[in-house]
Amino acid sequence: MSQRRIREYWGVEADIVHPPVELHRFKPAIPGDHLLFVGELVRHKQAAVALEAARAARAPIKIVGGGADEARLRAEYGSSAEFLGRVGDEELAALYASCRALIVPSVEEFGITAVEAQASGRPVVAADGGGTRETVVEGKTGCFFPKGDVQALRRILESPAIDQFAAADMVHNAQRFSAEAFQNGIRRQVALARAGASASDETLSGAA
After folding, report:
1. How many whole angstroms separate alpha carbon 118 and alpha carbon 114?
2. Band of the pLDDT at 98, cuts 50, 70, 90?
3. pLDDT in tens, 117-155
4. 74 and 166 part of one domain
5. For residue 31, how many other CB atoms are within 10 A of its CB?
6. Closest by Cα among 140, 143, 145 to 171
7. Are residues 204 and 136 in the same domain?
8. What is the pTM of this model?
9. Tally of helices (H runs) and strands (E runs) in the chain
10. H or E stretch covering 3
11. Are 123 and 143 found together in one domain?
């Protein structure tokens, strides 16, 4: 998304170096039947979309996070969802590994939770757009639904298709966003910048 904005406003083709994710914290386990949402409970994170779709599909869902919308969401969906509040790193890793799928109902610039879920061997069901279009491989590590479309999400949750993804594929895809991949990307950009600066200096010297 940011790459597109840079192209639109400045006419420059920008390279992307994705932020690093601490993948060593996550590993696959035997999945359960609950869905998972991880994020701040504020309106733009669209947690209500995940909660409404899960309730319509009669699918259990666990909510990790807190925020300004927490009390309202608990009051409205407390009978059909489990609100866990903020959890520690180890508990979060266990929740990822044991979920049926992670739901990302908002459009994110990057979306670290989607990578963490895949590193845990679990698929991602995400709103179509933004960073998850780069981190999730449709049909292989997850799937997409139109942002805000509760019924489209419900149909996905009712489908057995999200139970057919291979954990190995998801773990492999997550490796693209490791700390090592980030370091290599930064080194590559520095080398390109140095090469460009050297070429510019040579041009100026020749002109003089």
Report:
1. 6
2. very high
3. 999 999 999 999 998 999 999 999 999 999 999 999 999
4. yes
5. 18
6. 140
7. no
8. 0.80
9. 9, 6
10. helix 2-10
11. yes
